[in-house]
Amino acid sequence: MGTIIQTENDVDRFMEHTNENTFLLYDTGHLLFAQANYERVLKNYVQKINHVHCKDIRKDILENSLKNDLSFRESFLDGVFTVPGDGCIDYKPLFKILYENNYEKWLIIEAEQDPKKANPFEYAKIGYNYLSKSLAHTNYKH
After folding, report:
1. At the N or C end, where does the chain have fewer CB atoms within 10 A?
2. What is the pLDDT of residue 112?
3. Three-state SS for 129?
C-alpha cells in the first residue's frame, strides 16, 4: 500500500516506541488490506485512537490485488475499497469495543473509490445507513 506504518506488526512496533502523546487514526480498510487483525488492533489500542475511518473492503477484489501484487492505486481504481455496508467488514463488534471503552471521538465514512464507478453521494448514503443501524445495535447515540 505504500504507507510507512502499514502492517499489524508495524502498528505494534510504532506504539512500543512512542509515548502517551501519540494517538492513532484507526482505518478498518487499510488494516484489512494489510492483512492485519483489525479487531485485535482496536482492542489493543482503543485508548490511543482519536479518529476512526470506517472503510470497507470488497473481498474478491482484495484477494485479486494481493494475488497479483497490485499497487494501492491499481487496487482502489479496481474497487477494493468501499463504504461500510457494501463490503465484508462487520462493524458491530468494532462498535461494541468502542462503546465499551467510551469512545466519543470521530467516526468517518470513507472509501477511496473511482467516482465514475461509485457515485460518492449514493455510497455515502449506503455507509451512513449501515453505520447508523450498527451504532444503534450497540446503543450508541448519533
Report:
1. C
2. 84
3. helix
Q: Does residue 38 contact residue 29 with C-beta atoms inside 8 Å?
A: no
**CA separation for the pair 91, 55 (Å, rounded):** 10
pTM of the entire predicted model:
0.89
**Which CATH entry fits the domain spanning 8-137: 2.70.70.10, 1.10.3720.10, 3.30.1850.10, 3.20.20.150?**
3.20.20.150
Residue 61 confidence (pLDDT): 95
Distance between CA atoms of residues 129 and 139, nearest Å? 15
Q: Which residues contact 94 (CB under 8 A, 6 or more apart)?
A: 28, 38, 39, 42
Give the start-to-end residue ranges of the domains of the chain.
8-137
Q: Is pLDDT of 1 > 70?
A: no
Question: CA-CA distance, 135 to 120, in Å (whole number)?
Answer: 22
